[in-house]
Each structure stands twice: as structure tokens, then as C-alpha cells.
Specification:
Elements lengths: L1 E4 L9 E7 L6 E2 L4 E6 L4 E5 L4 E6 L6 E3 L3 E7 L58 H9 L18 H9 L20 H16 L2 E9 L1 H16 L7 H14 L5 E3 L6 E3 L5 E3 L1 E3 L2 E3 L2 E2 L7 H16 L5 H4 L4 E4 L19 E14 L5 E14 L5 H16 L10
Helix pairs in contact: 5-6, 5-8
């Protein structure tokens, strides 16, 4: 029997949360078969089997923390003959425990909701009131139904309350305790991408003096151009949104105002100007905010940028962005308008110099060159710049250059590479 050791899963990552086991004890697995999904502070990572065999024990329950270079599960390799000692290796390794949870509250190798074969009746355990063993998932289920854990008979080892026990209790029609008093807030640990975002945003907001700048952009002609081009793009297998236009226009503006593509070093005594414009896009994924970036936008065609936008958006929404796609960004776009927002005060994605929040497009009355009122597609944008080296005039001139390209998008053809 062998232990699968959790390998390095990212630069500097020492632990991760088990999100979902794809297998159960006793399952046959093939080499490279997905076994478990874990969450780091960067993204969701799928762990695959190193060789074929049979799962004999899961050391870390769903929702708990696994350590890099520590055993994750035990298995009997396909080439190993079955033996009695492999039927249930209870003492093979210690499971990981959630913060504040003692080993007595978890049955080794028992995923949430799966009773241990060595279960004993609750009457024989002599469990202490207020210390009823149960997994975090079961405790959450009990809280959601307003039940008292001590009142539920557990069928697991040492009186452990399982999900099935809670369901039986509910099916029996037993009334929950009086809810007239406040049950208190539901507590959920901040982990993974959301925890990383919290640290990043606090560091940025407290260490960078933000300068905000707002503007309106008439995108009527841009919308018309996109409608004409999207059919041709679809014929080549690409989905053409407005984001590639935003990015290409931004790369042109960066070429004129390279300070917006620069970054201060850690000592804040040097400016580093980057030759490539790597534009990040904030994506609201199922695991939290992620900001993958399209590399070297200035050297890519509009269709190439569109393909990257599609690829990165899909990967981010699934929480499966590669580390390389999250590194090296030089400036960021946050499209809050996709969710209906009009204005925002974005926080810079440090160590970058600036970020722009794009609001929703609205058809509004405007005067044309003849003084007549006409309907125009107006998009609001709000910039945030690092005021340590970017002043209001610089960001205004940069925004005006970007705006000019978007309001007359066909003029970009003169400068596109």
C-alpha cells in the first residue's frame, strides 16, 4: 500500500483546501485520473492519480486543509496483491484538521456523510454534552435547520453525527428548538482566492495613494463596428466582444504615455518601464476575484486578443487559471458594466500603476454637431492611478487618447500592428 504525497502546486503555496473528492474509498482509479479538487490562494487545482490502483483511505475530508508534501490519500497500486492489512488502514496516517478542531471530532478516512464501518451506537460512546463530534459540513447543516447538535443521535464512531443522522432527525418530524432568540451569524472561514484578494486589496489601499478620474465615452460608432466585424470573427471561430477593442486602444495609449505602464519598485525610489503592455481583466469567478492578463496586447491582432480574452475568461470563471496568466500584468480593466454598474472607485492591482472600471453603456440624449438632440451610446469609465508618480494631468491626457480611439475606432487602423 502506498501514500500519495501532495506535490508542489504553485509558487510559495504550502497548503490548500480540499474542495471536492472525485473518488471514494474502494474506488478503482486509472493513472492521470482526476482524484480531488483543491483550492489554493490562486485558483482551483485538479490533482490526478500518479498511478492506477484502488483507493484505500482519504486522509483529508472535504472542506479541510491539506499540506503540501504530506499524505493526501492511501492506495493499493494495481501491481500490488491485495492483503488483509489494506482493507481499512485506519492508523496509516493522521488526517488534517480544520483550525480549532481536535482529532477526536473527525473519523480518519471518513468523508462527510459517509459512516465508518466501525461505527458504534451513540449510547455506548458516553459523549459529553456540547462536545458532540461532527464534521464542519454537518454542523453547518444543523445550524441551517436551527437544530441542536446534542439532541441528534449519531451513528458514527464515538457518537459522531453524520449527515444521514440529521436527515433522519428531520424526517422524524421532531420540532427544532425555539428560534425566537437570534441564532447568530453563520461563520465561514476566509480561504483560497478570497483570502488572497483580501490581503492584496488591503495592501494596495493602504500603501498606494489613489487618484480617481472619471469620464464619459461615446461608443456608438464602436458598437456599430463591432456588429459589422463579429460575423466575420464568428466565421473564424472567435467571439468578438468590446473588451479586445478596449485593450487595443489602451495599448496604443500606453505607447504614447508609457508611465501608465510603469511600476514603482519596493523601495519606491525607482520607476520600471515595461516594454510589453500586459492588460489584466478582473473576472468574477466562482472562487473569488481573479485578474488574468493578456500578454503583449500591442503585438497581437484584434482576433488574437479576442481569443485570449475568451480563453482567460472561461478559465477564470472555472477558477482554473494558470499561474503564468496571473503574473506580469502592467495595467488592468474591470468591466463592472457587465453586471449593471455605472460608476466605481476601483482599487489598483498592485504593483501596477492604474486600473479603469468600465460602467454599463446607456443610450442617452446628446447634442450633435448641428445642435439637434440625438440618442448616443454613452459608457462611463472611472480611473484610479498611483498618485506617487502619476498626476491628474497625465491620467487625463492618457484617458483622452484612449477615448479618441474608442470614439473613432476605425482610426485605430492607422496605428494597429
Amino acid at each position: 500500500m502506498s501514500d500519495f504525497i501532495l506535490p508542489d502546486i504553485g509558487e510559495g503555496i504550502v497548503e490548500c483546501e480540499v474542495v471536492e473528492w472525485r473518488v471514494q474509498e474502494g474506488d478503482l482509479i486509472e493513472e492521470d485520473q482526476p482524484v480531488v479538487e483543491v483550492m489554493t490562494d490562486k485558483a482551483l487545482v485538479e490533482i490526478t492519480a500518479s498511478e492506477a490502483g484502488t483507493i484505500t483511505q482519504l486522509y483529508v475530508a472535504q472542506g479541510q486543509i491539506a499540506k503540501v508534501h504530506a499524505p493526501l490519500y492511501a492506495y493499493r497500486a494495481e501491481s500490488e496483491p491485495p492483503g488483509e492489512e489494506t482493507s481499512r488502514p485506519e492508523q496509516n496516517a493522521e488526517p488534517s484538521h480544520a483550525p480549532g478542531e481536535t482529532p477526536s471530532t473527525q473519523t480518519p478516512g471518513s468523508p462527510p456523510g459517509k459512516p465508518s464501518p466501525t461505527s458504534a451506537p451513540a449510547a455506548e460512546t458516553g459523549r459529553v454534552k456540547g462536545k458532540t463530534p461532527a464534521s464542519p459540513a454537518v454542523r453547518r447543516l444543523v445550524r441551517e435547520h436551527g437544530l441542536a447538535l446534542d439532541e441528534i443521535t449519531g451513528s458514527g464512531k464515538e457518537g459522531r453525527v453524520l449527515k444521514e443522522d440529521v436527515q433522519r432527525y428531520l424526517d422524524a418530524g421532531q420540532e427544532p428548538p425555539d428560534k425566537s432568540a437570534s441564532a447568530g451569524p453563520r461563520i465561514e472561514p476566509l480561504r483560497g482566492v478570497r483570502a488572497a484578494m483580501a490581503r492584496q486589496m488591503v495592501a494596495s489601499a493602504t500603501s498606494i495613494p489613489h487618484f480617481q478620474y472619471g469620464e464619459e465615452i461615446d461608443v456608438t460608432d464602436l458598437l456599430a463596428l463591432r456588429e459589422r466585424l463579429k460575423v466575420q470573427a464568428e466565421a473564424q471561430g472567435e467571439r468578438l466582444t468590446l473588451m479586445p477593442f478596449f485593450m487595443k486602444a489602451m495599448a496604443l495609449a500606453v505607447a504614447e504615455y508609457p508611465m501608465l505602464n510603469a511600476q514603482l519598485n519596493d523601495r519606491a525610489d525607482e520607476l520600471h518601464y515595461y516594454p510589453d503592455c500586459n492588460i489584466g481583466m478582473a473576472v468574477d469567478s466562482k472562487v473569488g476575484l481573479m485578474v488574468p492578463n493578456v500578454k503583449d496586447v500591442g503585438a497581437r491582432s484584434l482576433l488574437e486578443v479576442a481569443a485570449e480574452v475568451t480563453r482567460l475568461t472561461q478559465a477564470a470563471r472555472e477558477g482554473r487559471v494558470e499561474q503564468a496568466d496571473l503574473k506580469g500584468g502592467t495595467i488592468t480593466i474591470s468591466n463592472i458594466g457587465a453586471l449593471g454598474g455605472t460608476y466605481a472607485a476601483p482599487i489598483i492591482n498592485a504593483p501596477e500603476a492604474a486600473i479603469v472600471a468600465i460602467g454599463k453603456t446607456q443610450w442617452l440624449p446628446r447634442f450633435d454637431e448641428n445642435g439637434d438632440v440625438t440618442g448616443r451610446a454613452i459608457m462611463t469609465v472611472t480611473w484610479a492611478g498611483d498618485h506617487r508618480f502619476i498626476d491628474g494631468g497625465t491620467i487625463a491626457r492618457f484617458c483622452n487618447h484612449w477615448k479618441a480611439s474608442l470614439e473613432d475606432p476605425e482610426s485605430m487602423l492607422l496605428n494597429l500592428r
